[in-house]
Amino acid sequence: MQRGRAPRERGDAGRPPRRRELLAGMGATAGLLLLGCRGEPVDLRAQAAIAAGGSRGYAGPAVELAFWTGFTGGDRPPMERLIARFNREHANIAVRMSVTRWGDFYQKIPAAVDSGHGPDVAVMHADQLATAAVHRTILPLDEVTEALGLGAGDFSETLWSAGVFRGRRYGVPLDVHPLGLYVNRAVLAGAGLDDAALPRSRRDYLAALEHLKRRGIQGSWVSPVLFTGGLMFQSLLWQAGGQLFSEDGARAMFHAEAGVEALSFMVELIRRGYSPRDVGQDADSIAFMNDRNAFLWNGVWMINTFKAVPGLRWGVLPVPVIGAQRAVWGNAHHLVLPRQPGAGAGHRRLQAAVVFLAWLSEHSLDWAAAGMVPARREARESAAFRRMTEQAIIAEQLPAVRFPPAIAGADAVRASTLDLAVNDAVLLRAAPREALSRAAREADALLAGNLKKFGRVL
């Protein structure tokens, strides 16, 4: 994925982050928000048209492509293997991957592109495309995808539409990484629960947690931070029929009744004793790996981590339907083409970059080794992917996956308002309605500034 990460060490429960630390941590995406549009005289559509020529292949002089990603964890080796294979198959194109932590990546890439030292190809999360687009950091890809013959049918309507901002495409999906509900089978068995007790609904979930509580087990640790408490909140918000922001990006919507209902559910898990108070960063996952937590809301990226824990008996399910409808938070890695500084070799690299982009998209199944759900439909429907049992289970949720909205700067607004409200409520420092209302007022002011800077989304 992923801006989330595997826990640091088994047995290290950490501590709750302070508000100041959360504000500092949001700087990763806020850096993009503060840059402002520079309005360079580069014709983005002209570059996109040149790039589209790569759909016919590349037969020019040898070129080297810079490929930037944030794959610093267990997702790095699978991508390195794919790049090595591509380089073997393409004598005149050499791809060199540069890896930076996602927070640093999103701060670095706009300035690098502006200075003419950006990459030829990059990976971005779906929720970053709008901000990168308004900064002219990345090229529109409509002509490229049309030339490649790619469309929603090759992926899914949900995945395909997540790459669009203001009616233009900016990303080609490589994967999707939703949340799932991980279950610790040893904890459940110790409490006398079998597969019949695995929760699919609110009623099932609360019944299982009450049973576990009577056995002295706090079965659903609620995290106060974005990974994964914030993602749990967003899932519950959408299940309750709510939205993060208005469609035009002008107002916060997360404080409406659906948001209060979602956050109140999380707080109630704590007040009923189903979760400890003051759960530290990664403590929910660490407790799960130490057979102290029965249910864990976390992303598909945890599959490889749990497989590597000796003796851990676990499984995964779609997240339970707590609200009125199925919905689950998800994000996706997208392949993007950053703006290039000039002609000549730059034009050749644009075409070669499309060859690499198309090849990587076609090898979506191989990328699933990183613990992701492949974006390409043919990969998800293959027998090979169905044998990846846990990923295939999480992939069942694809029709219910909800992506963060395509609003420029929204990620930074959310990080500095909503994430802090969830933190305050889950740590029992503020009531859900109070925390969300305060955050919404702050978000509205930031959104108003964004609208002046970036213009309306619709």
From TrEMBL:
Pfam families reported for this sequence: SBP_bac_1
Similarity comment text for this entry: Belongs to the bacterial solute-binding protein 1 family.
Organism: Sorangium cellulosum
Name used for this protein in its record: ABC transporter substrate-binding protein
Main location: periplasm
Localization in the cell: Periplasm
Domain of life, source organism: Bacteria
InterPro entries assigned to the protein according to its UniProt record, in alphabetical order: Bact_solute-bd_prot1, SBP, TAT_signal
Transmembrane segment boundaries: none
UniProt cross-references to PANTHER family, sorted A to Z: ARABINOSE-BINDING PROTEIN-RELATED (PTHR43649), DIACETYLCHITOBIOSE BINDING PROTEIN DASA (PTHR43649:SF12)
Entry GO terms, CC: periplasmic space
